[in-house]
Each structure stands twice: as C-alpha cells, then as structure tokens.
Amino acid sequence: MTPALTIPALQARGLVKRYGRVTAIDGADFDLYAGEVLAVVGDNGAGKSSLIKALSGALIPDEGTILLEGSETHFHSPLDARHAGIETVHQTLALAPAMDIATNLFLGREVRRTGPLGSVFRLLDRSAMREQAQRQLDALGIETVQHIGQLIETLSGGQRQAVAVARAAMFGSKMVIMDEPTAALGVKESRQVLDLIRRIRDRGLPVVLISHDMPQVFEIADRIHVHRLGRRTAVVRPADASMSQVVSLMTGALRPGDPDAPPNLVDT
Amino acid sequence: MSAVDERSFRNRSAEAFLHNPALGPLAALILAMVVFSATTSTFLTVDNLSLVVQQSLVVATLALGQTLIVLTGGIDLANAAVMVLGTMVLARLVTEGSSSAVALVAGFVVCAMLGAISGGLVTMLNLPPFIVTLGMLTVVLAVGRLYSEGNSYPVTDNLLGVLGEGGYLFGQIKVTHGMTLAVVMFAITWYALTRTAWGRHVYALGNDPEAARLTGIHVGRTRFSVYLVAGVIYAFAAWQALGRIPNADPNAFQTGNLDSITAVVIGGTSLFGGRGSVMGTVVGALIVAVLRSGLTQAGIDSLYQDVATGVLVIAAVAFDQVVRRRSR
Q1: Which InterPro entries match (chain B) (predicted)?
Q2: Which domain holds residue A174?
Q3: pLDDT higher than threshold 70 for residue A257
Q4: Tell me, which fold does domain B23-323 have in CATH?
Q5: Are A152 and A99 in contact (CB under 8 A)?
Q6: pLDDT tens digit string along A98-134?
Q7: Is residue B326 scored above 80 in pLDDT?
Q8: SS3 sequence, B136-184?
C-alpha cells in the first residue's frame, strides 16, 4: 500500500493558531492513514498539544483546513470531534474515581431502557451497559481488572489507563488520539498499554500517539511525525531512521534535506 | 487467619463501605437504637418512635436538598433561610385571604427562584458555592424579616397544616402525611441519582468537574439543575415545617442549615463531592433525632446532646477518611 494514493483518515493543511504574539501552530500539516499508528514527537513547546487540540476540537484554528476522510470539517468543540468518531485519551484520563468501570465507560453516553421506562422515566439500562463494557474489555484482552463493577480508585495506574483506552476504542469509530498514555506508568504497565494500542490498530482504528519515549515510539509507530517550531518538519519511518536522527530533527540539529537525514515521506 | 488474609479481608470491608457509604451510619443508627432501648423504658415505644421520625422530617427534607448540592462538591448555607421565607410566603398569603393552593404555588415559585439564583451565580459567574450561599443566607434572612413586618403568622389552614395533622394508623404507629411525603421524596431522589443519567452526571461532576466536562457532560447545566431542584425541595421542607409547627416565624430554624449539613455528613456523604447517597442522609437525620430523643429519655441535658452530635460529625468524617485510605 502506498499511503500517497489512499485518502487519509484525517488530514490537516496549513493550520495556524496565534495567541496574541505567540504562534502556537505555524502552518502545520498532518496526515493520518487508516490502520496505522502515527507517533507525534517534538520538543516541549513545539506545539504538539496545540496541534492535537485542533484535531480533537478542543481548539479552533485561525487558518487552515481539516479534512476527515477527504471532506472538509470544522470542529467547534470536543463534542463535535467526538460525534465525528474521533476519541481522545487525555493525559488526565478523564475518569471519575468514585465510580465503577462500567459507569465510566458510558459516562456522558449512558444507554436508556427502550420503551416508556427509558423515554418517560429515563431509566438506565444498567445490565446492557455492563455487558457491553465487559465485552469491550474482553475484546481488547484487558484481563488485569477483576470485574466491571470495580471502582476506578481501586485500580492501578495501568488499569486506569486501560479503562480510558477501552472507552476511546469503544466509541471512536474513526480514530483514537492518545496523549502521553504511558508517561505515568511503570515498565510492565507501559507494555500492556502498548499491546492495547496494537490491538486497537489491528482492529482497523488508526491511532495517534503523542509520546516522549523514543524507544516506545520506535517500537510501535508505523510512521513518526516530527513537530518543530509549530509545524511538521518531517515524517519518517522507524525502519529508515535512528533515534538520534529523530531527536536531531526535533531539535533542529538535522534538517530534512541534509545528506545524513533519514528519508522524509512528505514535502516540507 | 494469616496476616495476608486479614489484610485482604480489611481491604474488602473497606471496599464494601466505598460501594455503600451508608453501611457505617446504618450500623451506628442500629447501635444507638439498641442502646437506648436497653437503657431507657420510654425510648422503644410506638409513640416515641413516631415522634422521633416526625421531629426529623424538616431537617431530613432540608438535608435531601443539601445532599444533592454536596454531591456536586458544593454546600448550601441558605437552605433553612429559603425554607423559612417559604413558610412566611405560605402563611402570610393565606392569612391575607389567598386560597391555600395559590399560597402553595407561590411558596414553591419563590423557593425555586431562590435556588435558581444560587445555581446561576455558582455556574455562570463561577463563584464558590460557600460564598454564594453565605450571601444568599444573609439576604434571604433579611428579606424574610422584612416580609414578616415584625409578625409571625399562625397557620389555621387545613392544606398548609395537613402534613403534620393528617395521617393514618399503620398498626399502632401514627404515620403522618409528612412522613409519607418524605418517603416519596427520598425514593424519587434516590431513583434520579442512581437510575438515571442525570444522577450519574451529578456524581461525576462532584468527583472531578474537568473529567466530567471532557466526557461530554454538560457540567454547568447539570450543576444549575441541582440548585433548582434543591430549591423545590426546600419548598417542601417549608410545607413540612408548617405541619410540624403551625406558625411561620422569620426567626425559626436558625441552625437548620448546619443541622442539614450534620445529617448529610453523618450519613456518609463526602463534603468534597461525588460520594454519598440519599439513603445515608435518611440515616444521618434519623441518627441525630434518635440521639436527641434517647439522651432526653435518659435525662441528659440538651447541651450534652449537642456535644454528642458534634463528636459524631467528626467521627463520621474521620471514619470516611480511614476507609478511603485503606482502599488505596
């Protein structure tokens, strides 16, 4: 498959976002293809999170276009992006600690009973939600949690991360964006989350992974989007590049056209 | 039992309390009732038990509205003042010749509007609930006194007094309409909190407002609705109050706000929001009433009853903290 010939799942061209005199996004491009894990790397302050926010509707860009499966879209809020099938796993996870796993999976998207019990008395279909939640955890191979009624606050960091990822995979019909999903985790738990990301990709959902962890990025990413000074400076394949080359691209020590730079997949 | 078994047993019991925070208070209520039944001859009589429940009704109803607000991480210092203004509106309108139905509607509208004002200030201006309701407390108390024009208004009307006067005998126990109404109100609120999406959103935004926002919950709208519903509940409390004491006095129920917070906290609801239940609040209100009644039967001075209640509040919160730490 040559990516250039297929329509990207999500594409952005020339995004600009200014805050007063500060330019957070400076003409950034972005391409995510079906079935891939795209890592987004960049130095602190390079504008990674601003870019991701623009793609997930949390920020409205001043200029530029966002294309979802080839057609132009405008997100005015994170809800818009979610309705379009883009789910985000925030660094804070956005879980309610005193509530159980099933409740958290359906938070804000509760399922009501059919018939007048649901439409008039607003009665929730708790067993349907629990069953569906259990199926989702099973499908993703999340076996570390004991049962679906466990409270989030009784779970370990890795288990919480898994719940947040499961929720995104459950409702994300187009893609899942993950912001530093392993930053707060130990080695073993990070491994479980990486497995989870692979399983989501293998089910056909593309994943955008924002990460600082180079070995991890090289292990899991199909392509690496290098962000620098508010724009995309290069996209490389992990197989074509070394970690130090990518770090050099991030810091500007190496430029995409340089003789010793790894092959760049895009024009910049 | 090995050390490991014992630890996991303790963790499991801590988890049971986490899932069901009303369990501890319920055990305390049963214990208090057993003790008073054993030590006094007058506590465990049908008349006394009925009286205990009747005495707890007004505070329990105030505490029901308070529970909703505390679950969102807020606090309502003005609830008793709102209720007292409600009783003034009801009683004065009837005294001046309005029909009792019109007076009731007016009372409900006033209380709901005051709830909406608090809710609006908290959600739209993003002010801390403590400050908003502290201001509302002062304003509403003053408005109640102004509206009373220095008088109190005795209630002779049938409909306004029905919650205390009317009732039926259930076996030998006198069940007033006020008790029935309270049971219905607690049942409806329990249902709304535990069986509808609205209830889950109330808990979620009390847990972590930012997480709730990110999951797509309309945080502001939900929070506002809680203050509005609480206002309506305070109108019911006003009706209950006139049934209990058929006289609207602007200086009545001065500690009603704190009494309702006491009931909520003893009932296991966390003042940090997101944890608790209306069942706990029922139990909390009953514990306070049982304690007062039992200590009175035992001939203990009412100031010592205050001491006991205060100790209980601190003990309840301390227990809550211990359970929470153990579950980690």
Answers
A1: ABC_transp_permease
A2: 3-251
A3: yes
A4: ABC transporter involved in vitamin B12 uptake, BtuC (1.10.3470)
A5: yes
A6: 999 999 999 999 999 999 999 999 999 999 999 999 9
A7: no
A8: HHHHHHHHHHHHHCCCCEECCCHHHHHHHHCEEEECCEEEEHHHHHHHH
Choosing among B71, B215, B217, B272, which should be mutated to test the A contact, i.e. which has the most A CBs within 10 A? B215
Give the closest-approach CA distance of A265 to chain B in angstroms: 34
Single-letter code of the amino acid located at B205: L
Give the percent of chain A with pLDDT over 70: 98
| Residue-level pLDDT at B115 | 98
Distance from CA of B206 to the nearest CA of A (A): 9
Do residues B93 and B102 lie in contact, with contact meaning Cβ atoms separated by under 8 Å? Answer: yes
The predicted complex's ipTM stands at 0.86
Element (H, E) at A40: strand A37-42
| Nearest-Cα residue of chain A relative to residue B272 | A98
CA distance A139 to A134: 9
Q: Is the pLDDT of residue A3 over 70?
A: no
Q: In this complex, is the C-beta atom of A229 within 8 Å of any C-beta atom belonging to chain B?
A: no
- pTM of this structure: 0.90
CB–CB of B25/B267 below 8 Å? yes
Cβ atoms < 10 Å from Cβ of B20: 14
Distance from C-alpha of A265 to C-alpha of A242, rounded to nearest angstrom: 15
User: Which residue, among B55, B109, B121, B56, has the nearest Cα to B85 in the 3D structure?
Assistant: B109
- What is the separation, in whole angstroms, between the first and last Cα of chain A? 22
Does A116 reside within a domain?
yes
Amino acid at B163: L
Q: What is the mean pLDDT of residues B219-234?
A: 98
User: Among all chains, which residue has been given the structure tokens 């506002």?
Assistant: B224
Does A99 contact B at CB distance below 8 Å? yes
pLDDT tens readout for residues B98-149: 999 999 999 999 999 999 999 999 999 999 999 999 999 999 999 999 999 9
Q: Which helix (H) or strand (E) holds B126?
A: none
A108: contact with B, CB 8 A cutoff: yes
| Distance from the A250 Cα atom to the nearest Cα atom in chain B, whole angstroms | 30
- Determine the pLDDT at residue B8: 61
| Predicted local confidence at residue B1, as pLDDT | 42
Q: Is there a domain that residue A266 lies in?
A: no
Question: pLDDT at position A62, please?
Answer: 96
Rounded distance, CA A69 to CA A6, Å? 10
Q: What is the CATH number of the domain that holds A236?
A: 3.40.50.300
